[in-house]
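I am writing to request your help with a piece of structural work I have in hand. The matter concerns a single protein, recorded as an amino acid sequence and a row of backbone structure tokens. Could you please explain, in whatever detail you think fit, how the structure tokens follow from the sequence? Thank you for your consideration; the sequence and its tokens are set out here:
>
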Amino acid sequence: MEPRPVDPAAPPPATAAASLEALAELLAVVDRLRDPETGCPWDLEQTHASLVPYVLEEAHEVADAIRHGDDRHLAEELGDLLLQVVLHARIASETGRFDLEQIARGISAKLIRRHPHVFEAVEGEQPSNRGSGGDSAAVRRSWDAIKAEEAAARRRVGEDSPPGPSASPLSDRLAGKVRGQSALAGAMTISRKAAAAGFEWEGLDGVWEKVHEELDELKEAVASGDRAHAQEELGDVLFTLVNVARWCGIDPEEGLAGTNRRFLDRFSRVEAALGGELGGRSIRELEGLWQQAKAQIRAESGPRDAGP
């Protein structure tokens, strides 16, 4: 099937029209909230920097809703995340830096540019042999190649620093790639790319040796009372455990999210058993209730539940 060109002037389908109407309503609400005369004092105080915790929080809540398969919750959390995008666009537009139109047109142009196998006929472009609509691995390679071309073009016009040829091209690319990821996800990205470049252990045993080495260094740092050093060593332990996860084909983000859920499930049962009052209880009593909670959950869900 020949790829269909995109006609920006074509009227949107009914569902798209309804979405645009809803988005216009959201823009009007945010405009009202940011109105200097009649807006909300809290919203008027916000800046790009002050909203960073909320952007991260909403993104994580979206991921949590996806993990739970809760469509109602997911729709709500995606709305909260969309609000963050609109708020940032409004704040930037107030000083003439950029607006939501630039954001939307920019991402549309990027998607078209990075999907030549889909949009190759757009505006008379010659067919491209990069990527294939039926081969996701080829598409991934094409995506990476186009991103590399874009980065090279930015360097040529001085948008990226440092200027001139880089002595550490992989490190430079990874620094940009992981800046928008959580620390745990960023560690996995770095680990995978470094391993693919040849910076790798010979076997899993070597990774485990590194884990024990880093744990010993963490213990020494904690015993020394140097919190800054201990924090560095804790980071080293976590990074090495991410390498274990990579070797074993395990997703550390999902693993930790699952542990959080299991902990809260068990902890809620401990609280319920004590009528919500944990104060004054011995650790032996609490541990006993914890083990009871684990046993209850195991009986309800089967033998696969495990963890602390």
User: Anything to note?
Assistant: The chain has three domains: 14-126, 183-250, 253-301. The radius of gyration is 25 Å. Residues 253-301 form one domain. The chain is about 70% helix and 0% strand.
